[in-house]
Amino acid sequence: MFDDLRDLYQEVILDHGRKPRNFRRLEDADRGARGDNPMCGDRMELWLKMSPDGHIGDAAFQGRGCAISMASASLMTETVKGKTPDQAKDLGAKFRELAMTGTCPHCDGAIADDMERLTPLSGVHEFPSRVKCATLAWHTLNAALEGAKEATSE
Amino acid sequence: MMDALPTAVFDVQRIREDFPILSRPIRGKRLVFLDSGASAQKPRQVIEAMVRCMETSYANVHRGAYWLSEVATEAYEAAREAVARFINAPDPREVVFTRNSTEAINLIAHSWGRHVMRPGQAVLTSELEHHANLVPWQMLRDDGKGIELRICRVTDSGELDLEDLAQKLADGKVGLVALAHMSNVLGTVLPVARIAQMAHDAGAKLLLDGSQAAVHRKLDIQAIGCDFYVFTGHKLYGPTGIGVLWAKLEHLERMPPFLGGGDMISFVTLERSEWAPPPAKFEAGTPPIVESVGLHAAVDYVTAIGMDAIEAHERALVDHAMQVLPNLPGVSVLGRAQDRGGVFAFSLDAAHAHDLSTLLDRAGIAVRAGRHCAEPLHARFGVEAGTTRASFGLYTTKEEIDVLAEALIKAREFFA
To answer: Which of A135, B214, B276, B306 could form a disulfide with B231 if both were Cys (CB 3.0 to 4.6 A apart)?
Structure first.
């Protein structure tokens, strides 16, 4: 009945949705932000620990939401560790393009491996009402990096 | 003026033919529309009445001394009379057209709450309200007028806690009780006649939000004994953009206008104005003219089928859904009220409401996911993340509930 939805709900999404990685509070975080989708009730809190050389040393989150939003946050925390804030923001911009269009024409070169890790989420572009589920984590990351307290992807 | 209406015998397949959208395939599947609680689909009779109005009898109302304007004014006032009959209001002047239920409640909060209620009085609402019947009262409370806000509790089975209601009425300070006639999440139908008695015994007025109930039950506001009743056109198979505020004439006469402008005055100079009598006092500006014709057609449509027949059909659907849905693996239905209408909010253990609704959409099933404009109620039942809601209309069939049930079983397997 739902076979054609396997593109959206790939095994990696279901796995990260059920068992999100880095799903914990970072007690010694030095940056953080809350992300909210007030219309659907998705909510997350993201913490970042910066390393002395200015990279993202650790990233973790807690929250509640659909499989897409939890999987996206989980994959994001895995992906941004070790990145500079600018690199992380650039990945976020590319990811939003991927989520909205299903393709990412400028995703080769140095970021190719990272984007490939995020590609399982590209299926959301066929579901306009679900794109914001996938992008909430990245909006929240931007807010944390820019020192804002809250983000929304409404 | 009207097309041939369905006969009094309730034939759901015949009724479905009146709704053009129901024969439209969605994603290659037959549409199973289970979101009528958010907004109902429209029968041909409503659509055609509105088109006919615009094609043959449209002009602004209450203004022009020419034939078309007179015809349009007659149609607009005929809609008011039809609505008055529909709810058994004693006087059509008690029917005010608004944009929707939300605007009607805001009108009461503004005109009654801010100008008729006195400092030290309280508004009493409940945990099961749609935000439309909560937020305006929070705004009133925070407006520096000295109005308190009290919240009546809901029991674990999803009924209004009448003992709590009695306690919160006991000190006589409640000026207005504002409650949903039927919950848009739990389906609970409140014992409104009894509540009206309790409110009046405590010196309070009663406002009922009938957005859900007006669609499913025969309404008699005199038998209920309330003071204010509001509902919206678009859930009653009518158009968007028109709602109804009914209030006792004596209340409307005491209330100052909500919005100022044309059509609501009897006399204007540059210095001051005098208000027109109700209902015009509350209908500033050009009203929803075409929409009133659509609402009239909708009221005629459900009346011709018979609200009793609609209620009986929906009771059978509710009984069927109560047998099927709670017994599905992993499904828990919110609320176990004795008296309930065709609204079922539920959780599936394997999936978040949004993932589930995306799946159901693929099967052609339209349901609502989220908190249905009732966040506090979801918090009350510990389902902050939201629920999936199936809500029925007069065109809903038992087979559609079975299609939903089968899809829920498959969806659980999908996410397992």
So the answer is: B214
How close, in Å, is residue B41 to chain A by CA atoms? 21
List where CATH 3.40.640.10 sits in chain B: 49-303
What are the two backbone dihedrals, phi and then psi, of residue B174, each rounded to the nearest 5 degrees?
-75, 120
Distance from CA of B358 to the nearest CA of A (A): 8
Tokens encoding B130 = 């749609």
What is the domain class of B49-303 according to CATH? Answer: alpha beta
Is B403 at the interface with chain A, CB within 8 A?
A: no
pTM for the full model?
0.92
The band of B9, judged by pLDDT with boundaries at 50, 70 and 90, is: confident
For the segment(s) A3-146, the CATH number from 3.90.1010.10, 3.40.30.10, 3.40.50.300, 3.30.1540.10 is 3.90.1010.10
Dist CA B351 CA B356 (whole Å):
6
Please say whether the beta carbons of A120 and A10 come within 8 A.
yes
- For the question of an ipTM over 0.90, the answer is no
- Give Cβ neighbours of residue A142 (< 8 Å, ≥ 6 apart): A89, A92, A148, A151
- Closest chain A residue to B376 measured between Cα atoms? A41
The answer to whether B385 contacts chain A (CB < 8 Å) is: yes
Is the confidence at residue B46, as pLDDT, over 80?
yes
**Chain A residues with CB inside 8 Å of B378's CB?**
41
Structure tokens at B9: 């015998």
Q: What is the mean pLDDT of residues B253-266?
A: 90
Instruction: State the average pLDDT for chain B.
Output: 95
CB environment B145-179: b (16+ within 10 A), e (fewer)? eebbbbbbebbeebbbbeebbeebbeeebbbbbbb
- From CA A73, how far away is CA A133, in angstroms rounded? 10
CATH of domain B306-415: 3.90.1150.10
